[in-house]
C-alpha cells in the first residue's frame, strides 16, 4: 500500500504559520505527484494543493493561493501554510495523485489514506 506519513500539524493563532511534511518509507516518493488534502469536521475531504514529480508544477485551490506553498525535495513534500485562518482547521492528509489537463482532473488521489495531521487555527 502506498501509505504516506504526515507531520507538522498543531495549534496556531489566526495569522500564524505551520509547515507540514509528507514522507514515505516503503517506496520512492519522488517518483509520484503528491497532493495535500484536508477534511474539516462535518465536511468532505477536499483538495488543497499538489505538485508534480519532475517539473514540480504546483496546483492550489483558490482559497489558499497566496498563503500556502507546496514544495518538495528528494523524499519529502512540504506544505508551508502562512496567514492561517480558522477555516483552515482540518485534518491534513497527503497522497500520491494523478494530474490531468483540466481542473477537475488535477490532484486525484489514489492508494490508501494515512492518519493525517491535525491543524487547528484558533484564538
Key attributes of the depicted protein:
123 residues; mainly beta; seven-stranded mixed beta sheet; four-stranded antiparallel beta sheet; globular
What can you tell me about this protein's structure?
- This protein is mainly beta and 123 residues long.
- It has strands at residues 5-7, 10-12, 18-23, 33-39, 46-51, 58-60, 68-72, 76-81, 90-98, 108-109, 117-121.
- Strand 7 (68-72) and strand 8 form a beta hairpin.
- The termini are far apart.
Compile the SSE list and pairings:
Layout (H helix, E strand, L loop, with lengths): L4 E3 L2 E3 L5 E6 L9 E7 L6 E6 L6 E3 L7 E5 L3 E6 L8 E9 L9 E2 L7 E5 L2
Parallel strand pairs: 2-11
Antiparallel strand pairs: 1-3, 3-8, 4-5, 4-9, 5-6, 7-8, 9-10, 9-11
In short:
The chain contains no helices and eleven strands.
